Amino acid sequence: MSRLDKKQALLNTALTLFVSQGFHATSTASIAKQAGVATGTLFHHFSSKDELMKQLFLTIKQEFADAIKAQLSQQGDLKADTKHLWQVAIDWAIANPLKQEFFQQYSMSPSIPTAIRQQAMNDILSFMGELILQGQKTGELADYPLSLMQESCHGQYLAATRYFLDHPDMWQDEAHKQASFSMFWNAMKA
Fold first, then answer.
1. What residues contact 112, with CB distance under 8 A and at least 6 apart?
2. Domain HTH tetR-type: where (predicted)?
3. Residues paired with residue 141 on neighbouring β-strands, in sequence order
4. Is the pLDDT of residue 83 over 90?
5. Is the C-alpha dihedral spanning 21, 23, 29, 32 positive or negative?
6. Could you give all domains of the chain from N- to C-terminal order, each with its CATH number?
7. How far apart are CA 96 and CA 190, in angstroms?
8. Cα separations (Å) of 190 from 100, 114, 144, 185?
9. Is 184 helix (H, G, I), strand (E, B) or coil?
C-alpha cells in the first residue's frame, strides 16, 4: 500500500468509526488496526486524533464543494441558480450518506475547532459567500451580516439533509423538494 493509500485508508476508517462510535470512543489504535496499518503510520500522517479529525472534516468539505462547483449553474437568475445549488447539495448528501452523517454529527461539534469551521466556510465554500453577497447587492437577499447568513444557510442545509436522509423517498417527491428550497430561500430573501 502506497503512502497516499495508507493516508486515505486512515481517513476512510476514521470516517466510519467516528460516525459509528463517536469521536471520543474511537481510539487511534482502533483506527490504525481497522485501516490495516501500524499505529505509528497513523502518527506519521496525523500528529493526533484531533488533527486527523480536522483533516477529515476539511477533506470531505472540499469534496462536497468540488461536487457542487462542478455543477454550478450561471443562468443569471439568482433564485434559479440558488435552487439548482440547493438541489445539487442535497443530491450529494443522499449519494454520500456516511459523509453527510459525519457532517450532521461534527459540523457544530467542539471536536471541530471554530477556526477549521471558518476555513471551510470562508475558503472551501467561498462561492456560497459570493452568491449571498451578489444577492444582497441586487437587493434580492436580506442585508444581514454575511457570516450569520452563511451559518443560517448551513443550519438549514443540515436540517433538510437530516430530514431527507431519514426519509429518502421524500426527496423524490416534488412537493417536498420544492418546500425544502422554499423554506431555505424565504429565510434569506429581502
1. 53, 54, 57, 106
2. 4-64
3. 189
4. yes
5. positive
6. 1-46 (1.10.10.60), 53-188 (1.10.357.10)
7. 33
8. 30, 29, 9, 10
9. helix
Q: Helices 146-166 and 174-188: crossing angle, nearest 10°?
A: 160
CA 45 to CA 64: how far, in whole Å? 23
Q: Which residue has the cell 423524490?
A: 172
Report d(CA 89, CA 100) in Å as an integer.
10
- What average pLDDT is seen over the chain? 92
Q: According to the model, what pLDDT value does residue 1 have? A: 65
Residue recorded with cell 493509500: 5
Give Rg (Cα) of the chain: 18
Question: Residues 71, 90: contact at Cβ < 8 Å?
Answer: no
pLDDT in tens, 111-153: 888 899 888 888 999 989 999 999 999 999 999 999 999 999 9
For residue 159 the three cell numbers come to 436540517
Q: How far apart are CA 28 and CA 48, in angstroms?
A: 8
Cα distance between residue 63 and residue 166, in whole Å: 22
Q: What percent of the chain has pLDDT over 90?
A: 75
Task: Tell me what the mean pLDDT of segment 22-44 comes to.
Answer: 93
